[in-house]
Amino acid sequence: MKNFISNTLWVPIRKKRHQFTLIELLVVIAIIAILASMLLPALNQAREKAKASSCVNNLKQCSSANLTYANDYNDFVLYRSNNANQDSWGAVLLNQKYLPGSYSSLGDTFLFNSILFCPTVQKNPPADKESQLRFRTYAMLNYAGDFDYTSRTKQLALGKFIATPPNDSSACCYFLAKMKQPSGTAMLADSGYVNSNSQYGYCSWSISAHNLLSESGLMLRHSNRANVACMDGHVEGGNPQQLYATPTNFRRYIDADGNASPAQWPQIYENL
C-alpha cells in the first residue's frame, strides 16, 4: 500500500488584533489628566520651595559679605557710596571682591551676579542697559529716608545707627555698634515694584519698611512670604503679619502680582 504525501498548503490563520475603542482611549486620557492634575501642584510647590531655599542662601551670602565689609571698615555696613559708578551696596561689594563677580569692560558697570537677586525674579536688564544692573539686587533697607525711623520712636527701639564714614562724607552707612537689636533690624530683603510702575518685574536695591506711598517695597515672592536678612547675619522668612511683628515693623508690602499692600493692614495687625 502506497503512502501518499499530501501537498496541501497550510495557510496560517491570523489572530484578530485587539484594538482600543474610542471609549477606552478616552478613559486612559482621563486617567492621565487626573494624575497630572494631582502631581503638577505638588511639583510646582516643590519648585517654589527650592527657589525660596535658594533665596535664603543668596541672602546669607550677601549679608555675610556686608558683615565682612563692616569688619574691615570699623563696623560700618555700607548702604550707599558717593561714587557715581559704584553707589549701591552691591556694586561696592562686587568691586571690592567681597562678592564673586567683577566689573565689565564697559567701565562703570558690573557683570550681574545671581547671588544678588531672588531666583523668582523674571525680568533682568538687557545687555544695552548694563548701567542699571547695580540697582537690580536685593534691597538694602533705607533707614535714612524712612520717616518712621528718623522722626519717630524707631530710633529708641533699634538705636541711632545711621552714620557717615570719615573717608566718604556723602556716603551713608549703618554703624553696627550703635544697633540695639541687630537680630531684629533688617539689612536686606526681597524687593520689587508695583505693577503700575515701568520697573515692575525688576527688584529694587533700596526700600523703605514703612512708606506706604512708595512704588517699591518688600515683595512677597514666596507664597505670600518674603525673606529678610538681619544685621546679625541670620535670614528669616515670614508673611506680612509675622514681618510686621518684628522690630523693623514692616508695613509696606507688594505681592507677587505687583499689588501694593492695603493701607489698613497695619491697623489690622496692631489689633491682633
How would you summarize what this structure contains?
The protein has 272 residues and is α+β, with helices and mostly antiparallel strands. It has 6 helices and 11 strands.
Describe the protein's architecture and organization.
The protein is of the alpha+beta class and 272 residues long. It has one domain. The protein is built from six helices and eleven strands. Strand 9 and strand 10 form a beta hairpin.
Uncertain stretches of 5 or more adjacent residues? 105-109
Overall pLDDT metric:
80
C-alpha geometry: elongated
Proportion of residues in extended strands = 5-15%
Cα end-to-end separation: 113 Å
Number of domains: 1
Largest sheet: 5 strands, mixed
SS element count, helices: 6
Total count of strands:
11
**Largest sheet: spatial strand order:** 7-2-5-9-10
Q: State the order of secondary-structure elements, H for helix, E for strand.
A: HEHEHHEEEEEEEEHEH
Helix fraction?
A: 25-40%
Query: Over all CA atoms, what is the radius of gyration?
Result: 29 Å
Helix vs. strand class: alpha+beta
Q: What attributes characterize this protein structure?
A:
272 residues; 5-stranded mixed β-sheet; 11 strands; 29% helix; 3-stranded antiparallel β-sheet; alpha+beta
Q: How would the blueprint of this fold be written?
A:
Layout: H1 22-72, E1 76-80, H2 89-95, E2 139-141, H3 147-150, H4 154-158, E3 162-163, E4 172-175, E5 186-189, E6 191-193, E7 206-207, E8 216-220, E9 226-230, E10 235-238, H5 240-244, E11 253-255, H6 265-270
